[in-house]
Amino acid sequence: MKRKQITQIINVRWFPKFLKTLVAEFLSWFVLKVNATKPFIPVIEDILNKTYNKRIINIEFGIGAGIETVKPFLNDGVKVDSIAISNFNTSEKGVYLFVNSFHQLNASEAKKILQNIEESGNPVVVVEGNNDSLWQIVGMTVFVPLTVLLTAFL
Prior knowledge:
The chain contains four helices and four strands; from the N terminus they run ααβββαβα. The protein is an alpha/beta fold and 154 residues long. Helix 3 links the parallel strand 3 and strand 4.
């Protein structure tokens, strides 16, 4: 099945920046609250161990629910550096990491970035998803819509 790229409303040019910031903060808070990124940790740690790396190079999109939702679960010895997607390059050595952000890239951008990382000889980890915790299910079906409705009237 061919991948379909759907533009998220917060990514259109006319969407107010202050609302985008609030959405990003809410996503980060909520994802941390329900431990949605906790299942990513064994995958990340496995790659760090297999490649003898202690450094993560996070590809930052600034959309929330990114590396800030993973850091609390990482071992103390892991160093995390971030580079903005707009300044992406593979000059640094380490494990390149996309946390809940890879879907923001269109297919050709995604392919080019993965190819650049592969050619640099660095490992890459792409983690996106959800867990099936009760908190997350309740949150996504109750808290998120309720928050949107309440903020619309404030």
